[in-house]
Amino acid sequence: MDVSFILIAAVLIGLYSAINIGANDVANAMATSVASGALTIKRAVVVAGVCDVLGAVLVGSHVANTIRKGLIDPLQFSDRQTLFLFGMLAAVLGSALWVNIATYFKLPVSTTHSIIGGVVGFGLVSVGFAGIKWKVVLFVVLSWIISPVFGGIIAFTIFSIIKKFILGSREPIAQTRKVGPFFTGIVGFILSLAVIYKGLKHLHLDLPIKEALLISLCVGAGGFLLGSFLLRRYKERDADPYYQVEKMANPLQVLSACFQAFSHGANDVANAIGPVAAIVAVVQTQKVDMQAPIPLWLLLVGGAGLAFGVYTWGYRVMETVGKKITSITPTRGFSAEFGTATTVLLCSRLGLPVSTTHVAVGNIIGVGLARGISAINLDVIKKIFSAWVISLPAAGLFTAAIYFILTILFI
Q1: 34-55 residue pLDDT tens
Q2: What is the distance of C-alpha 332 from the center of its chain?
Q3: How far apart are CA 351 and CA 349, in angstroms?
Q4: Residues 208-246, buried b or exposed e (16+ Cβ, 10 A)?
Q5: What is the spatial distance between Cα 281 and Cα 357, in angstroms, rounded to a whole number?
Q6: What integer pLDDT is reported at residue 352 of this predicted model?
Q7: What is the pLDDT of residues 22-33, one digit of tens each?
Q8: Domain count, the chain
Q9: Tens digits of per-residue pLDDT, 86-138?
Q10: Is residue 284 predicted with pLDDT exceeding 60?
Q11: What is the DSSP letter of 200?
Q12: 351's torsion region: left (phi>0), alpha (psi -120 to 50) or beta?
């Protein structure tokens, strides 16, 4: 097969994958902001698109694992580079098709786990059952339980604190001015630590924990002072104090949503273009290696795809996550987004494989449970959980079928 045809096909498939990732994953960051009224859908997709592109280009992964999560030993393809190329093409296209279908049905799924399922499918049909590292697959399955439960507990705790000390007080506005700055400080600390200690490693700025903590503490102190200043300047515009408390929480929720979208672009762009970079590297070097550099032009392609997916179909999954699981207000939305950022940071540093989608959904469930089980739409939860369970086998089956077709047509 002509090498130029393979490269063009890889870039187009990677772009298609990025579009679907943007459409499905935008709900992780923006769904609660839209549902609470902090942002309109139009503003949310614009903000998410811009933050996704910036995250992908500025802090995107410049070195990606050729075989996602080390599922397959690349040495098995040292003398079969063409099969490896077809396998990577099939994995990206197969996982993208599954995410496309899930988005059509407005179901939030893990794009990371989908590409893992694609690689597993490729591995099974190419090197067999024994060639797959099943311990990694087991960790992925365990994360379906660990990440949403862990995130839900944090979100439940945060909203319970807000409900007790602010919403449950006789003077909620005065309490917001007292307690609110602590939340802005904590958000600044957590989000900066997530970026500095995890997000900037691709720029070779993965600082030691002490330095990262010191910088984050300074950012947190700045967040505390800024929050105190803004809350004191807030002018009461409505007779309902609880309505005003929710309005006061809007800026904090939007800020945390922007950080999540930026982080999404930085981390998940590799799901779409990491395998494409591997294909480019194999074509150029004629060998399969575990490390493949991602050139800037591919990051731009991936970032543009993420943004386009956000603009076109982003509203579909946002509707499910933001409106159909439980009722969301700015304080509840902030609790969920804060829980997501915290959970992803802690689990990542503990080496647990987590999906931002799973964490975000778990946090929204946790916020709903803080008001009782009746506040949760259990039918929607069942559909979402079912989609999670079938993500790996669905993406794997799509990949296996595409791989067989490619090998029959071109080998």
Answers
A1: 888 888 888 888 888 888 888 7
A2: 19
A3: 5
A4: eeeebbebbeebbeebbeebbebbeeeeeeeeebeebbb
A5: 30
A6: 60
A7: 899 877 778 888
A8: 1
A9: 988 999 999 999 999 999 999 999 888 898 889 889 889 988 887 788 887 88
A10: yes
A11: G
A12: left
User: Is residue 348 very low, low, confident or very high in pLDDT (cuts 50, 70, 90)?
Assistant: low
Residue 174: per-residue pLDDT = 87
What is the value of pTM for the model shown?
0.83
* Structural tokens at position 147: 């990440």
DSSP H helices in 3-80: 3-36, 41-59
Note whether 365 and 372 are within 8 A (CB): no
Q: What is the CA radius of gyration of the chain?
A: 22
Rounded CA separation 318/25 (Å): 9
Residue indicated by tokens 């709900």: 27
pLDDT of residue 290: 56
Most confident option among 60-69, 178-187, 273-282:
178-187
Q: How far apart are CA 367 and CA 339, in angstroms?
A: 10
Q: Which two tokens stand for residue 401?
A: 């079928």
CA dist 81 and 369 (Å) reads 51
Report which DSSP code applies to 306: H
> What own/partner pairs with CB < 8 Å and gap ≥ 24 does 157-161 have?
158/334, 158/335, 158/338, 158/339, 159/331, 159/332, 159/335, 159/366, 159/367, 159/370, 160/370
Q: Which residues pair with 65 in a beta bridge?
A: 291
Mean pLDDT of the chain: 82
pLDDT at residue 240 tops 70: yes
Domain that holds residue 406: 3-410
In sequence order, the 6+-apart residues with CB closer than 8 A to the CB of 126 are: 77, 83, 87, 403
d(CA 231, CA 173): 9
Tokens encoding 67: 């075989």
Phi, psi angle pair for 292, to nearest 5°: -135, 120
Torsion of CA 366, 369, 371, 376, to 10 degrees: 110
Amino acid identity at 104: Y
Reply yes or no on whether the pLDDT at 178 is more than 50.
yes
